[in-house]
Give the backbone structure.
Amino acid sequence: MKNIFIDAPPLTPDQAKLGRSKGYGDHPLDKYLKEGRIPHIWCSGCGIGIVLTAFIKALEKSGADPDKTVVVSGIGCSARSAGYLNLDTYHTTHGRAIPFATGVKLANPELNVVVISGDGDLFAIGGNHIIHAARRNIDLSIICVNNFTYGMTGGQGGPTTPVGAISTTTPYGASEYPFNLVYMAAAAGASYVARWTVLHTRELRDAMIDSMSKPGFSFIEAISPCPTAHARRNKLGSGLDIMRYYKEKSYLADELDRDETALGLADKIAIGKFVDVEKPTYLDMYNSHVADRAAQAAKKKKKKKK
Amino acid sequence: MENRAVLTGTHFINGDIACAEGGLAAGCRFFAGYPITPATEVAERMARRLPQVGGIYIQMEDELASMAAICGASCSGARPMTSTSGPGFSLMMENIGLAAMLETPCVIANIQRAGPSTGLPTLVGQQDVMQARWGSHGDYEIIALSPESPQEAFELTIDAFNLAEKYRVPVILLSDEIIGHMTEKVVIPHPDEIEIVKRRSPNIGPKDYAPYYPDEDDIPPMSTAGDGYHIHATGLTHNEHGYPDISADAQERLVQRLVRKIRSNADRIVRTENLYLDDAEVVMVSYGCSGRTTREVVETARADGMKVGMVRLITVWPFAEQLIRELAEQSSVGAFVVVEINSGQIALEVERCAGGNAETVLAGLMGGRMFAPDELYKVVKEAVL
């Protein structure tokens, strides 16, 4: 068969220059962003940018080595965060950020591996992966931006959509019970679990620092407004209105009670650090229970042979 | 110190274990998988052996996760592997597409069983041939190798790693239940005799490096996570910098290259075993366990005076297009008999390449057992007449 492909246009000088954008470097935090990647894709009033800034500030404050910090994401608005960061970043398939990150981490345990993705990506299509990674206590930091909807595809209902909430696929109001993400992460075995809203930028930043320095599986839920796809349909107001709501309705909870930490459409929001425990990570367990025993078994075998 | 990764010597092991040993000999130190018959022995062997050589075996929650994990491990510089069979292979398709798009070298051993669906978990099939090539959505090219013995399962697994690293592509070891569960002599050579090909690393600094800017042979050098290159890799259509570029131009450049890097090197990649082709009137085309029966039938037919030859595909993908085309044009060749345990997958390729210059006959079996020599002999006899 003769193949005739339409000629691909060659790389234009403009494209070749990509990554050398005007104004880059003017902002003190620019060094944490890849050149030529801003403006970002997020709508005005969206909270994902605040989460990204909190993460950058966490990098700065913690002194984490950018060469050794890797960010992995799945699919969705929140998952686009990875592409802006001046680190090794991997934007993978829908729901698979955590298993991909598991491979990155286990093949090079030196790396500080962070997953930034959304509630739908991590808990619907990726739900099985997050509970198993938490169970294994793999040394990953998961930052889950929860905006209660699938923003990128225009606002469909998902596993966090509160009962009664209107979305394009729940036009009469959602009828399913939503997941309680922090409760689920804790139940699955996470070593660190926290929830903050994007109003709590310093707490978010500090939680990210904690999670990166914490050996084991850390989970941070960042409650974030989606004015375009979620708030508008549910008459929750603008991004600013939602920040006011966070200010009024969020309260520091001192324990992880299932019902207290459940989230509704406009209910109170329990925030805080819910879990912070020390326990051996997946690799600690692998080394002590598997690798060491394999080495011992091999030694015994050798002696026997002699 | 003895090299515990390469068990130099003569062994009596099955094809699954040989495949795992091939991986270890090729430098695999990361395996993520999920148990499934008849591929479980590959995982079990890795679970026992990897901790002995400083490697990691992780049993993931499913095959979606297994495939994603080996893509991630590859980005950290590992030579990773997974193994599976039919239903698990279907689940891996999503991230085989990701591996093709991110160009992460990795090896997937598919020990084929008969389908569709759960099918015959413990019995043979060769029905995943087209799935191996086309199973993930979109356009891409992969490499698939098909062993006909435990010895070849060992050797081709090493080749699979080397090809994956050289071309930055997922490589599939398309084995089958018969080969996986067949116990035979396997000779493992000295490590010095095993060729190890490593991926090309960037020879320029991070400032000038664009992760998807290819060398002249269409293969871009690959940086490793943690080396300071700060790359972005995405399953979205991307430009040479790795940044998403949602445009027809970027799509054209990228996907043409993904296809071209394999197609234009097909003559370097394709390997076949050829038997009695010079004067063949009928050429039997086969691969994997079916190749074994075919060889016996060819020998018997020759002994009986029939001019029968054989092409055994060692690389199933890319397909041995050139060879089949030349044979079809060879004046002696009247027909191809394609022997495979499916309803006609490689037969379609043979018929396409024959281009009407020779007849194509499918000797098919729906799975559950190998061909018996006498039933194939009958097909050949008819084809010769």
